[in-house]
Write a structure and sequence with these properties.
The chain is an alpha/beta fold. The protein folds into two domains: 21-51 and 214-379, Vaccinia Virus protein VP39 (Rossmann fold, 3-Layer(aba) Sandwich), CATH 3.40.50.150; 57-198, OB fold (Dihydrolipoamide Acetyltransferase, E2P), CATH 2.40.50. Helix content is 28%, strand content 27%. The chain is built from nine helices and 17 strands. It has helices at residues 21-36, 93-105, 151-161, 215-229, 246-251, 265-277, 290-299, 318-327, 339-351; strands at 42-46, 57-64, 70-75, 82-84, 123-130, 137-143, 165-172, 184-189, 194-198, 201-205, 236-240, 257-262, 283-287, 306-309, 331-336, 354-362, 372-379. The chain has an eight-stranded mixed beta sheet, with helices on both faces. Helix 5 links the parallel strand 11 (236-240) and strand 12. Helix 1 (21-36) packs parallel to helix 9.
Length: 382
C-alpha cells in the first residue's frame, strides 16, 4: 500500500512512506532477526490492518513564512526549519484539523509565532492528545510566556470550531532549547488531562505523560508481554521503567502483587491516579531510578518472580542489569523500542544466567524506521 505525501523527503516524520507496507514489515522483521540471531528466533512481526492515522499524540511546530504568515508542521529532518503540513497520514485526523484551526485563529487574535533566532513571539508548538476509545481530546498550547491574549475568547472560538475538545492547557516554555515542553502548566479549559482505555483499564494522560502513541498496536504488544510473563495469580511482579503504570496495571489482575518503578515524577503521579481509577489494590508505585530500586530489593531480600522492563531507546544500564541478574527472577519480559540496545542488553543477560526463549516484533510505528520487540528470558538453572 503506497501512500502519497506532498512533503515526503522534506519532513522528518516518515522514512518508509514510498515502501509498500508488507515490504516494511519484512524489512523490520529482518532487522530484528539479524540483531537477535545470537540469542533467539524472532517468531513473527505483528503488523496493522490499517496502518494510517494511528498517532494519538500529534505535535506541530509553529513559525512564519517569508511574508510573515503563520505556518505549522513538522521540522525538516536534522533541522529546525518548519515544513508546512496541513495533514499527515500518520496523525489522528481530528488532531490535524484542530491544528489548522488554531493556525487560522492566530491573526485575528494577534498571536505571533515564536522565532527561535530572535526569541520574539509567543506560540512555539501545539500538542494534541486524543483518547482513541474515549474520544476525549486535549490541546496543549506551548507558549514562550504565560499570557495568552484574549484567552477566554480564544478558547470560545476554538471550541466553537471543535466542540469535541475536552481540555485546553497552556504549557510555558521560555527556554532557548530544543525541549518542546516547559515545566509550568496552566489549565484554561476542562480538567487538564484526558483518559483512554488499554486492556479494559482506564488511564489518565496529562500533557507530559508517556503513553504509547499507537493504541491498536499497544493492545497487541501488552497482550504478548503479559502472555510471555506466564502469570498465574501467585507471582510478585516488578514493572521497571513503568511510566504511567500501564503494563503493571494491565498485568495486575493476573499477579499477586506488582511494584511499578519510574524516575519521572509526573508519570508516577499519573500512575497512582490510574491505579485508584481502576480500583487496583495490589499495585504499588515508586518514584526512583530502576537500577537503584532493584539494588534495594536485593539488599532487603524482596523476591520478584517476574520482571517487566520497558526502558527508553537508550536501553537499560549495567546497574539495573547487574542487580536484576543478582535478584534472579524466574522470568524477564523485555519490551524494547530499539533492537540495537535490546541486543546489547541481551548479550549481558545471556552471559549472566538467562536464556532468551521467545521474541516477537510489533510494528508500532508504520511508515517509519522504528520497530518494537518483546523478548522472554528465563533463568537458567545450573
Amino acid at each position: 500500500m503506497e501512500k502519497k505525501c506532498k512533503v515526503f523527503g522534506k519532513c522528518g516524520g516518515c522514512q518508509l512512506l514510498n515502501m509498500p507496507y508488507e515490504e516494511q514489515l519484512k524489512r523490520k522483521k529482518a532487522e530484528v532477526e539479524k540483531l537477535l540471531k545470537p540469542y533467539c528466533k524472532v517468531e513473527k512481526i505483528v503488523g496493522m490492518e490499517n496502518p494510517v492515522h494511528y498517532r494519538n499524540k500529534v505535535l506541530a511546530s509553529f513559525s512564519c513564512d517569508r511574508k510573515g504568515m503563520p505556518i505549522s508542521g513538522m521540522y525538516e529532518e536534522n533541522s529546525h526549519r518548519v515544513v508546512q503540513t496541513d495533514s499527515c497520514l500518520l496523525n489522528d485526523e481530528r488532531a490535524d484539523k484542530i491544528i489548522l484551526s488554531i493556525r487560522g485563529l492566530l491573526k485575528s487574535f494577534k498571536i505571533k509565532t515564536y522565532n527561535e533566532d530572535t526569541g520574539y513571539g509567543l506560540l512555539r508548538h501545539v500538542l494534541i492528545r486524543v483518547g482513541k476509545t474515549s474520544g476525549q481530546i486535549m490541546v496543549v498550547l506551548v507558549l514562550a510566556s504565560p499570557i495568552l491574549p484574549g484567552k477566554n475568547n480564544f478558547v470560545k472560538a476554538l471550541r466553537n470550531l471543535h466542540p469535541e475538545i475536552t481540555s485546553i492547557v497552556i504549557n510555558v516554555n521560555p527556554r532557548h532549547s530544543s525541549a518542546v515542553l516547559g515545566d509550568k502548566e496552566i489549565v484554561i479549559y476542562g480538567p487538564g488531562f484526558i483518559e483512554d482505555t488499554l486492556q479494559n483499564k482506564i488511564f489518565r494522560i496529562s500533557p507530559k505523560s508517556f503513553y504509547q502513541i499507537n493504541k491498536v498496536q499497544t493492545e497487541k504488544l501488552y497482550s504478548i508481554a503479559i502472555e510471555f510473563a506466564g502469570l498465574t495469580g501467585k507471582e510478585n511482579v516488578l514493572d521497571a521503567y513503568s511510566g504511567t503504570g500501564t503494563i503493571g496495571i494491565c498485568a495486575s489482575d493476573k499477579a499477586k502483587k506488582v511494584l511499578c518503578v519510574e524516575l519521572n515524577k509526573d508519570a508516577v503521579r499519573d500512575a497512582i491516579v490510574n491505579a485508584k481509577r481502576n480500583k487496583v489494590t495490589n499495585v504499588e508505585m515508586y518514584n526512583q531510578d530502576a537500577g537503584e530500586f532493584m539494588l534495594k530489593q536485593v539488599a532487603n531480600d524482596v523476591k520478584m518472580d517476574v520482571v517487566f522492563m520497558d526502558p527508553p531507546r537508550s536501553g537499560s544500564d549495567e546497574k539495573f542489569l547487574k542487580s536484576l541478574c543478582h535478584h534472579a527472577p524466574k522470568r524477564v519480559v523485555y519490551v524494547s523500542c530499539n533492537p540495537e540496545t535490546l541486543a546489547r542488553d541481551l548479550k549481558y543477560l545471556t552471559k549472566n544466567g538467562y536464556a532468551a526463549k521467545q521474541a516477537i516484533a510489533v510494528d508500532m510505528f508504520p511508515f517509519t524506521g522504528h520497530v518494537e520487540s518483546v523478548v522472554l528470558l528465563t533463568k537458567v538453572h545450573n
